[in-house]
Amino acid sequence: MKINLIALLAVAGLAGLAVPTRAAQMPKVGDPAPRFAGQDQNGQTVALADLIGKKIVLLYFYPKDFTSGCTKEACGFRDRMGELQKDNVEVMGVSFDTAGSHQKFMAEYQLNFPLLADPDGKIVDLYGVRMDHLKLAHRVSFLIGLDGKIVHVTDAGSPNVHFEQMQAAITALKPK
User: Fold this and answer.
1) pTM value?
2) Cβ pair 128, 61 in contact under 8 A
3) Domain limits of the chain?
4) What is the CATH number of domain 27-173?
């Protein structure tokens, strides 16, 4: 009986991480970008609809604040921000983390772009990037053109692949 009780408690403890998912399929190049509104690290509403036609949007999803790969990715976008802004690109990151966690993450690494808090996974699920049955997002970046359509998708574990592919996609958008 003790073993069953311990097993039950262990499963119950992990139940908080597992959640039923009804994620949409991940959008592909040429698809309209799913419209969303979310709260950034300061509680301000950020809506994709407000940026379409004004900015190219680099929307990236990542698993968790303060983890090594996510820190590398965030700092990489931070360090490239000057060039991205010259190309009229607005960067924003999304994870399940809270606004408070995002504030600490941004302060620690001096990030210069918004991070959207998505603790209930609505934006993550809208883009189909939830890790199966977990409150974590896959590392996926979407480049959204001025017309609101997906221009490029990078679905890779390596932040360097995201930087290289997004830069190439941004360069391809420039008038020849």
Assistant:
1) 0.86
2) no
3) 27-173
4) 3.40.30.10
